[in-house]
Amino acid sequence: MNNIFVYCEITDDRTIADVSLELLSKGRKLAEELQVKLEAIVIGHDLKGIEKQIFPYGVDRVHIADDARLFPYTTLPHATLIIDLFAKEKPEVALFGATSVGRDIAPRIASAMRCGLTADCTSLEIGDHFENKTQTAYKNLLYQIRPAFGGNIIATIINPETRPQMATVREGVMKKEVYDDNYKGTVHKVDLSVLTEDDFVVEIIERHMEQSKVNIKNAQVIIAGGYGVGSRENFKLLYDLAEVLGAQVGASRAAVDAGFVEHERQIGQTGVTVRPKLYIACGISGAVQHRAGMDQSAQIISINTDINAPINHIADYSIIDNIADVLPKMIKYYKANSK
Amino acid sequence: MSFKIIVLAKQVPDTRNVGKDAMKADGTVNRAALPAIFNPEDLNALELALRIKDKLVDCEVIILTMGPFRAAEIIREAMYRGADRGYLITDRKFAGSDTLATSYTLSLAVKKLEPYNLILSGRQAIDGDTAQVGPQTAEKLNIPQITYAEEIIDVNSTHITVKRRLERGVEVVKSKLPVAVTVHSSAPACRQRVTKLLMKYKHSRTITELQNETKDYTELYSLRPYLQLEEWTVDDLHADVEKLGLSGSPTKVKKIENVVFQSKDSKVLTSSDADIDGLMKELLGSHVIG
Ligand SMILES: Cc1cc2nc3c(=O)[nH]c(=O)nc-3n(C[C@H](O)[C@H](O)[C@H](O)COP(=O)(O)OP(=O)(O)OC[C@H]3O[C@@H](n4cnc5c(N)ncnc54)[C@H](O)[C@@H]3O)c2cc1C
Ligand SMILES: Nc1ncnc2c1ncn2[C@@H]1O[C@H](COP(=O)(O)O)[C@@H](O)[C@H]1O
Fold first, then answer.
1. Nearest C-alpha to atom 12 of ligand 2 is from which residue?
2. Could you identify the atom of ligand 1 that is nearest to the CA of residue A148?
3. Residue A141 is part of which domain span?
């Protein structure tokens, strides 16, 4: 069987993006299960020594394409290099971050390779499959698992016939784990001669990257608000509690869609995945897409006027009351008891 | 020379209203059980197309939609807002298409409309949130792509300049035409229906729709042939059947599971002083906070 490939994204300060390190960590585990090697692809500029950031995640081989025209990212040259590499190396599995970059390039590559791609997986596993129609048995397929339609179901997607089996995964879904600080792989310089002028027809004229102001992903305590918070003004109650507790404020998609908070704070399948010590869900019903991003929290408190809200099923404490009454009291009794 | 914009638009079930009875046993959605809407980001795409049409003297906006017969509603809706015409791509053989088979089909339809200058689509459809069809259609057509467009800054007969909305910033890019652009929800909302256009197009129908009408449209249509909406089938597209529908889709649904809540032993509290005081003491005591 062939190897597992992870496309690594490069940040402006020439570090490997967290989402890619998380995918390498997952890739390492899959590689062991399948008894294959783990390979990484890095495309950019000024990449001298970049492999040192990568090897500790258990990478056996890193493919590096280093050229001034390859940073910042544009679709076509990166896609052309990867398609060429995949045509030669025939990966078994190829993983991409479900980021602005990953979701731009992965479909283009999948189309060129005529292979399947599953967006936004929340879990990746190895398993077998028996196709009744053709009476064919498949061993060791990649199960690409994601919540699907309307969120009432979890779907397991497979690509029995085509390779690579491609998937994108959001930042924070997999755990970043160093495998071995002294792990040593090899470096392969990618052949740039496949690039042509046509790959550079899209030109970046201006670029403003903002350091994310919000860092809910690594927060220990999260106060998340939903549609039940009611308004942008009412969110102030959550910020007040967050300030007292040293917490971050998160939100459900309904709260983001309603304009109560910025999109960066969205938690769930199409937002960030979080695993805080404490998650306080305020006026959030607990749809499966929301829970997909927070159900790994160590403790969950739900504040909801509706005792039947699904969020209460996964909460350690369900406060069945109006957030306008509960939150100020939480501040008051936190102060009273902490001193 | 006329500037031709093709907008890819999809009719989607309103996933904000999915009940349990809307799912079929095989994991596919019983679309008939759900309200069908114009995919929200496709409306943003339509708006960007109409803004270009407002600016250029000679510009045509064409809607392409692939779906069941009722998806013709999308074409009418777009025409009420200013699109010039549209094509419904419909055939049983398309059923079960994943994004690869869908983009193959759409790319064949686009080729029938050649030469074109610009393809606009939504970033993603709310029924699957995959965001794959735009880039995959671009690849099939062998043209460049610009994803997550928020604003079209400039366009002329050879080039387009687009502002992109990224996770952590914005980018302005310039591409030569033709190019496929996917549009982000942060782009301007689509304009409302124009009453004059509503009156003009409200009787427009596809052939299949006409067959189900009780009213006789023959005379009206001979006077106003533009009311006839075209349907394209597998044969019209000269499509390779192997690349369509289920057989053309490398992704298979192996299994679907209904989400079951694993009820935790949840303590139920109220906003009473005693309850909240006790809760904060517990959290502080176990060092979860503080
Ligand atoms: C493909 C797809 C992807 C999605 N991705 C995400 C995602 O990433 N993240 C996400 O969050 N959602 C996502 N959603 C949307 C999700 O299905 C739900 O619609 C959303 O999570 C609901 O948000 P909510 O709980 O805030 O709102 P609602 O469901 O409207 O719930 C509001 C809750 O507030 C309670 N309430 C009202 N007033 C008060 C009050 N005064 N005090 C206390 N409680 C009150 C109500 O009882 C109710 O339970 C996605 C949906 C789809 C289809
Ligand atoms: N069946 C279809 N007919 C027309 N356009 C489509 C169709 N499916 C997807 N699209 C376009 O592709 C975009 C992305 O869809 P998706 O990859 O399904 O998230 C949509 O916003 C539409 O613009």
1. B133
2. 1
3. 4-200
